[in-house]
Amino acid sequence: MVKYNIKANRIFTKWRKIAWLGTFVIAVGGLFEPLLGLFVVAIIVGLMVMSFLRGRYWCGNICMHGSFYDLILIKFSRNEKIPNFLRSNFMVVFFLAFFMFNMGRGMINAFTAESLLRPRTLFVFRLIEIDVTDTVGVLRGVGFVFVNTYWMVLVISVCLGLIFTSRAWCQFCPMGTFQRLSYRLSKIIGTSKKTDVMVSAKSKLLCHSCAKCTRVCPMQLHPYLEFDSNSQLKSDKCIKCKTCIKNCPAHILSLQNEENATKITQQTEHSYALKKPEHRANIEKINKIDKNILEIAFKIKNSTVDFIPGQFILVNIKNNPKMNRAYSISGFEKEKDLLRVTVKKAPGGYGSDIVFNSLKEGDEVILEGPLGHELTVDKTSKNILLVAGGIGVTPFIPILEDLSTDVGFNGNVHFIYGVNKENELLYLDDIKSLTNRRDNFKFTPVVAFDDNYKGEKGFVTTVIEKLSLSDTKIYMCGPKPMVDSSEKLLGKMNFDRRNLFVESA
Ligand SMILES: Cc1cc2nc3c(=O)[nH]c(=O)nc-3n(C[C@H](O)[C@H](O)[C@H](O)COP(=O)(O)OP(=O)(O)OC[C@H]3O[C@@H](n4cnc5c(N)ncnc54)[C@H](O)[C@@H]3O)c2cc1C
Ligand code: SF4
Ligand code: SF4
User: What is the CATH topology of the domain spanning 275-371?
Assistant: First the structure.
């Protein structure tokens, strides 16, 4: 069974990579020198000040426990859905009360006049004795209260983290609750208006509803279902950890304050998404190209599809909550209302599992789009370089079809298509026949890891670095590592970034 929640890809600053050690320094070191526990006072002050400015930013970026959960505990966690009970208000209030009672009792013990008059001993796992008859002794007693609390947090959070998910504790952590309360207060008195940054979409209309943000969210929030009219997530539970931002395949998310989010939405070209039409379609044919690749033909019912070559379509694969998958349109026959996508199975992929195991010929599905403008080719350009990697070949089939049949188009086209093994080259005959239609079209397949391959060997960058790229516009689609290394190379070649158009999941 493929898991819904994804563990990988949390964000680690230099601080977060080492901060988790601090938890153990205080918890274990505090057993020998309880004064270490007083460091927690500084932590509480820090997180409270921060919460007035940025809500639970501390939890996702600075908290030592948090970095332990994200870096270490996550590896051993079952990563399951957090039960509603642990997320309930009852749990939040109960734990806050329990925490306050425990802390209060500990403090009274450390501070009471009685303790100061008579030598008293606090036992900590019977490792140390604290004499609270002088000021340093009282401070050690107070420090121990925090050390004790640290142990309580560690034990509970590790147990819940192993059983559910690494941030299960954070759902009702009293420090998180304090931050949420002061954040709410800061909203009322306005201290966080400029400083607070929230997960913000360039425009919620550009969201694919793919649910990736939810699946990677350590707090198991639903950003894509909760964007407000300003395309922002206003949840006080968000720890601003940026995990959803890093993983969004539409690359539309960032952390912004309210003012900047509004500006970004206004500056974002999303008019085409305003009319994101929904189409009912039947699956006309599923063609198994090989065990990992399906070509699915959809017959559109009772609506018209306006398609520009290079665009993708959203295929609804699940409801409650809604979940789509984006697939580039690899074929379109307007007169027959037929639209084709080509799907590669992602190992362990949630959507792949549904597409490969549940979709059948005859099924009715909802499609949204077509969408996307990154791969809409500027036909006035003198030279056009098309670069595909792996399954990124799909949008280029209709693009080549269009360019090769457009009588008004005279540009030079070079199509580079990179794969790992020769047998992964898809649509080879189609591409050859399309690029052979014109003398000024060139096709270079390139194979990375196949000793028997007779053609160009290496990566797409092996081919690009040999080219002269003046008066050229580049359109690229493929996996992130390919895009990253190509962008790096193009930077070295002083290629103008404004002439590079990229689509990558
Ligand atoms: C604009 C656009 C166009 C696209 N066009 C196409 C197309 O034409 N054809 C096509 O096949 N795809 C295309 N994609 C990609 C497609 O939308 C899906 O993202 C892709 O199929 C994977 O989806 P999934 O749900 O199967 O995988 P996911 O479940 O989202 O998993 C993605 C990857 O993460 C890994 N993963 C999952 N769970 C974990 C975990 N717990 N720990 C670590 N790693 C994990 C998986 O192994 C997998 O490799 C396109 C994407 C975009 C944005
Ligand atoms: S919504 Fe995004 S930033 Fe907020 S907690 Fe979830 S993953 Fe982190
Ligand atoms: S595109 Fe996917 S990951 Fe990005 S905001 Fe929308 S649902 Fe979330």
Answer: Elongation Factor Tu (Ef-tu); domain 3 (2.40.30)
